[in-house]
Design brief:
- Two copies of one chain form a homodimer.
- The first copy, chain A, is an alpha/beta fold and 443 residues long.
- Chain A has a single domain, classed as TIM Barrel (Alpha-Beta Barrel), CATH 3.20.20.
- Helices cover 40% and strands 14% of the residues of chain A.
- Chain A is built from 15 helices and 15 strands.
- In chain A, the strands form four sheets. In chain A, strands 1-2-3-4-10-11-12-14 form an eight-stranded parallel beta barrel, surrounded by seven helices. In chain A, strands 5-6 form a two-stranded antiparallel ribbon. In chain A, strands 7-15 form a two-stranded antiparallel ribbon.
- Chain A starts with a strand and ends with a strand.
- The relative contact order of chain A is 0.17.
- Chains A and B meet through helix 2, helix 3, helix 4, strand 6 and strand 9 of A and helix 2, helix 3, helix 4, strand 6 and strand 9 of B.
Chain lengths: 443, 443
């Protein structure tokens, strides 16, 4: 079972920063991140996972002012990942970076650089920017449509792979005696000319230690699944039930096979928001402590943001309307929340509070045995290859998971007690990709 | 006197990587960079300085194959700077980043992030991309003209400052009791709409600890000087003689004053390529050892690249033509080399060998006393506020400078023996900029 530690600065719960033990300035506190990363590494997590947004998210600033984790005050992930690479030795380092407003040469180079700095531990969670708050920072009046963004993302990933393949693995001879630094026969240009990009290459850094950084995908829409099946090696997804997890798992594995890849070439990690106690009552109490810290306007604002529609004109204790329009936002997340509300008969208030907790991810509250039971059920029944752990608050929520849940996972033989390899690919059991031979000789 | 340690992977000499004591894989060896950075910090350097290029430089691949340091195999600087921030505590961290092929929101955010990670030690050397080898990686058939690039760079820096000013310094309250994370009255949007960029803001990270990262400029053309005088706080420049250094120094200080700034608001650091020995003979011997390692084609290729014109059709032992055309490359560097050749009557071969050593920078070979005499002369006579030290090879060239030259500088009272402050601005004696009030209230 693969485990990611998904690090939101103060934790994933909307009110996490108000928890007495939370580090309220976590987003710009490097010592905090270093300590959390080292704790996750000591517990043998496969990877750290960082989200991203190139802009403050949300239109309701009075709600944002009461909600720390919406990208108003945190490190930029690739620079943070560089720093975390220097204070860890084995754990994988995955950062999210959008393809929508940057050129592929820049991102391919950065992730290759992190892979070299870390000795083969980098992963890139490729996303598209589903948020006009980002678009406005890059000269757009609105963000490009969903399909257009995915088309660009597909070309972007293709270019990135081509750039990582600029050099054969053994191109750099560095022969002091003969004075030959690299082998002229082992460098290639890409000469890419596509709809979105023109990129000659070569990339000015050797092939990453892992061949490519581990490619992660986090969109669960149809376009997201198609991109994942074509290229991704890890899929991060939000699933609320065994059935929906199985549907997603089987669909993505089947699509992956249809792309001529082995189903083992892709690892599916649903998010899980675990609230663990020594007893179920203690876990419930911990959760209620956090829920009671949510400011009324915050949950509604987050829900409006997630659904991409205004809700404040509707009765807070009434139901979610049946006919939510599909917007140009994060399509799969929207669908998941509407289904959750209708399945459990939640009022807008109840849905808002739920979203403010786990943000639409799978929320499990209980003892270590309860939580491992649920994880095991998905893991053994084609629902998950592992999980991206979303601690409610940091560092306490991760510490509790490490102290209580990890030992139970190990006891049942579901999780490692020691790293066997040195790279993120080693941890995940993913093969190192060969160079693709579609290049032009540079000379 | 301010001192920078300008870290080219294996050192600045074209054949540095072939030196018996050089770390040939330095460009992708993080342990190497960490050790060099820590040595520079122990010696109380003001800053580390990293160059950059978003593409392999040079058209002559057979020469590149014999020349390691032309950006074919090295870390991307902002990710490297993040990593170096984690293994150092006091030294300033300056990386070069071009404004030509990226959006300002991305770069402003990265440098703010590095400033936060490092506790106020970041600096940004703003350049334009004077090289078509970069243009080809970003969808261009040729790079934009010199003036156009500087116009974009000027708007870029203005936007970056505006983004760093998105939040007042005390905007983040993080009051767990009241649940107010930030003060709504202290966040601003930029709403910039210019010729090159449209950027709403706010930046999604608090104001950098230093207000702005230290702003460095490295172009010495007329446009470069104008940009420096308007905005830069450190100027890195190539100067060969006391007279040219004085001309540059006085001109930039006067232009800075003409912009309503104090001449003390800008620090001028010429590059110096020091080859130090315990005797002059030992220094000469060290230099010849490096010169003898230069492959014949390498020096010519570097010279062609620097001048932006082909030279291989001319007699290698003949003079440089009088009428070198001004190209769309790095204008000031071109001028400097032509003047050097004509002043000293150098043949193309001699100029090529000189450029392969110090790349057009000021080359000083001698004992510690000789080198400090020359540095002191510039420092005391309006030629320099300090120097960017360009070690011939690493780590040995920097180690020798630290062992021999630094003590002589300290003995003469020219250089510190301990850091007095914690930020790069502290080290350089630069004031922390106030927020500029040109923003729109976000709410």
């Amino acid at each position: 079972m693969a485990l990611g530690a998904f690090l939101y600065p103060t934790g994933h719960h909307a009110a996490a920063w108000r928890h007495p033990d939370a580090q309220a300035d976590a987003g710009i506190n490097f010592k905090h991140y270093a300590a959390v990363a080292q704790a996750a590494e000591a517990a043998k997590f496969d990877l750290l996972f960082l989200a991203d947004s190139a802009g403050a998210r949300g239109k309701d600033w009075s709600a944002l002012a009461r909600f720390s984790t919406h990208y108003v005050a945190q490190f930029e992930p690739t620079t943070l990942l560089g720093a975390l690479a220097a204070v860890t030795e084995r754990i994988g380092l995955v950062a999210t970076a959008s393809t929508t407003y940057i050129e592929p040469y820049h991102l391919a180079r950065k992730f290759a650089s992190i892979d070299h700095i870390s000795g083969g531990r980098a992963g890139w969670n490729l996303v598209t920017s589903g948020n006009e708050d980002e678009a406005f920072n890059f000269g757009y009046d609105q963000h490009p449509p969903h399909d257009e963004r995915y088309e660009r993302a597909t070309e972007f990933m293709d270019v990135a792979k081509g750039l990582w393949d600029s050099w054969e693995d053994d191109a750099f001879l560095r022969d002091k005696e003969t004075g030959v630094f690299f082998d002229l026969d082992k460098v290639y240009t890409l000469n890419h000319r596509g709809r979105h990009f023109g990129v000659r290459g070569p990339l000015n850094i050797p092939r990453p230690p892992q061949g490519y950084p581990v490619l992660v995908q986090a969109g669960s829409s149809d376009a997201g699944r198609a991109l994942a099946a074509a290229s991704a090696e890890v899929v991060f997804t939000a699933q609320q039930t065994l059935e929906s997890a199985q549907e997603f798992y089987r669909d993505v594995k089947a699509r992956t096979a249809a792309n001529g890849r082995s189903p083992d070439d892709i690892r599916i990690l649903p998010g899980i928001f675990p609230v663990v106690g020594r007893t179920e009552a203690e876990a419930r109490e911990k959760f209620e402590e956090l829920q009671n810290l949510i400011h009324p306007s915050v949950g509604l604002s987050i829900l409006e943001h997630r659904l991409g529609i205004p809700l404040s004109h509707l009765p807070f204790d009434g139901p979610l309307p049946q006919d939510i329009p599909i917007t140009n936002a994060a399509v799969s997340r929207q669908k998941l929340l509407v289904e959750l509300a209708h399945r459990e008969g939640l009022s807008i208030r109840q849905l808002a509070l739920r979203v403010a907790g786990a943000r639409g991810h799978w929320q499990v509250i209980g003892t270590a045995a309860d939580i491992v039971d649920r994880m095991e059920e998905l893991f053994l029944n084609e629902g998950a290859d592992g999980f991206n752990i979303m601690p409610p608050f940091l560092p306490g929520g991760l510490d509790a998971f490490i102290e209580l849940v990890i030992p139970e996972l190990c006891r049942r033989g579901l999780f490692r007690t020691e790293y066997e390899g040195t790279t993120l690919r080693d941890h995940l059991g993913l093969k190192r990709p060969e160079r693709a031979h579609r290049h032009h000789k540079a000379v």
